[in-house]
Amino acid sequence: MVTDSIGDFIIRLQNAARIGKPTVVVAHSTHLLAVAKKLKELGFIAEVDVRAIGQSEVRKEIVASLAYDERGIPRLRGVKRVSKPGRRLYAPHTAAHRVKGGTGARILSTSLGVLSDGEARRNRVGGEELFEIW
């Protein structure tokens, strides 16, 4: 059983990008699907699909296809988990700074949903800092 599904998901993405694997499969949750869609919007993931496991419509999984450039180099170069289950970190919108000079993003879970650092600054909303990705 995984206690930190966000941490597990981003590490799976990072490991898959390093070995050149095209897809990552994780257990479905609404929050994890929102994070995957935000990463697709930012260009780190090419495609996000939800599929049922077996004949049952109850159990689902998320299939995320990683984004690669025309030379086959992955768009995702690294991740860093900020808020962890044992230590939750929250920040106001003024503390949501740029990552790696603007080439990366910090993902926050806010009252408006899952947002990147730029969107949090524009909407003037803070929240839990989930992770940094570049």
Query: How many domains comprise the coordinates?
Result: 1
Low-confidence stretches: none
Computed Rg? 15 Å
DSSP helix fraction: 25-40%
Specify the CATH architecture.
2-Layer Sandwich
Largest β-sheet summary? 5 strands, antiparallel
Order of helices and strands: HEHEEEEEEHE
User: Quick one: how many beta strands?
Assistant: 8
CATH topology: Dna Ligase, domain 1
User: How does the overall form come out from the CA principal axes?
Assistant: globular
How is this structure best described in words?
- This protein has 3 helices and 8 strands, in the order H-E-H-E-E-E-E-E-E-H-E.
- With 134 residues, it is α+β, with helices and mostly antiparallel strands.
- It has a single domain, classed as Dna Ligase, domain 1 (2-Layer Sandwich), CATH 3.30.1490.10.
- Strands 4, 5, 6, 7 and 8 form a 5-stranded antiparallel beta sheet that branches.
- The two termini are 28 Å apart.
- The model has no long low-confidence stretch (mean pLDDT 94).
Detail the topology: elements first, then pairings.
Layout: H1 5-19, E1 23-27, H2 30-42, E2 45-52, E3 60-66, E4 79-81, E5 90-91, E6 105-110, E7 113-116, H3 117-123, E8 127-133
Antiparallel strand pairs: 1-3, 2-3, 4-8, 5-8, 6-7, 6-8
Provide keyphrases for this structure.
26% helix, Dna Ligase, domain 1, alpha+beta, 134 residues
